Amino acid sequence: MYLFKRISDLQAFLISSKTVIGFVPTMGALHKGHLSLIEKSKQENGMTVCSIFINPTQFNDKKDFEKYPVTLEADIEKLHHAGTNVLFLPTVNEMYPLGMEEIVPYDIGYLDTILDGKFRPGHFNGVCAIVHKLLNAVRPNRLYLGEKDFQQCLVVKRLLEIIQSDIQLITCPTLREENGLAMSSRNERLSTEERENAKAIYISLQSIKKEMPTTPFTELQKKYVKYLESYSLEPEYLLLADANSLELLTDFNSTKQMVVLIAAKIEGIRLIDNLRI
Ligand code: AMP
């Protein structure tokens, strides 16, 4: 596995490789969910590039940024074993040479007003800024993202439209712990008890899916907000949306593809998950 810290070195190498490139951007603290994206990219491309960069501009909460887990040595080991061809590991200065104030607003419209857009102001603009920069650096043919970050997938799809890019966006399914909890780098910060309680998120999603034909969504919403709270979780939202547009829905609609999305905090650690209905 080759490791590059500078965009110029990365580009010189990739241009000479003359092959189809799959790209998996991450913030590190890698788990099997990340590695499933690498695996998918390896199957579909001549070369797989992974980046690890904890992007400061997408953290609306300074504490969340400071406490974001860093496990670089283990990450490098995992990527190497997974058969990743290139790891791009830039510094903040490499990605934001003019400082972080330089970032311009991206017109992601409605998507920025709901769910994580609403609860994490500025978050998706930071995501767009870094994904745009990383895409310019790597110039991949395909970009691999996880459906665990459902709204992020739609935001990046919009970004690709805004920048008129023909990069193919591939979204990959969510990998889960044995107890159903969606794998996440932030899970590293959970105690054994918190991890156990956090499984209530996936149980809620599954139960809503099961109960939905017979019970109005608003009732299920109330029931499972209480259920989450009974496991010491603080739900930020539990909402139903159109899976293609993320238009929020008040009840089930058999003519639409739908998704239920949850964000909840446990001891200040924010977890998100979703399930297609
Ligand atoms: P992150 O390092 O959290 O920014 O995630 C990097 C990429 O991995 C994003 O596209 C995520 O959606 C994806 N990802 C994170 N967790 C999972 C998971 N449990 N299953 C599949 N993909 C995931």
Structural topology:
Elements: E1 2-4, H1 7-17, E2 21-26, H2 32-44, E3 47-52, H3 62-66, H4 72-81, E4 86-88, H5 92-95, H6 115-119, H7 123-138, E5 142-146, H8 150-162, E6 168-172, H9 192-198, H10 200-211, H11 217-229, E7 234-242, E8 248-249, E9 258-266, E10 269-276
The largest pleated sheet is described as:
6 strands, parallel
Mean pLDDT: 97
Helical stretch tally:
11
**Which small-molecule ligands are present, each listed once?**
adenosine monophosphate
Class by helix and strand content? alpha/beta
Task: Name a few traits of the molecule.
single chain; 277 residues; alpha/beta; six-stranded parallel β-sheet; four-stranded antiparallel β-sheet; 11 helices; binds adenosine monophosphate
Q: Overview of this structure, please?
A:
Helix 7 crosses helix 8 (150-162) and helix 10 (200-211) runs antiparallel to helix 11. A 6-stranded parallel sheet has the order 1-4-3-2-5-6, with helices on both faces. A 4-stranded antiparallel sheet has the order 8-7-9-10. A hairpin with a 2-residue loop joins strand 9 and strand 10 (269-276). The chain is globular. With 277 residues, the protein is of the alpha/beta class. The model has no long low-confidence stretch (mean pLDDT 97). It has helices spanning 7-17, 32-44, 62-66, 72-81, 92-95, 115-119, 123-138, 150-162, 192-198, 200-211, 217-229; strands at 2-4, 21-26, 47-52, 86-88, 142-146, 168-172, 234-242, 248-249, 258-266, 269-276. The site of adenosine monophosphate (AMP) has 17 residues, from helix 2 and strand 5.
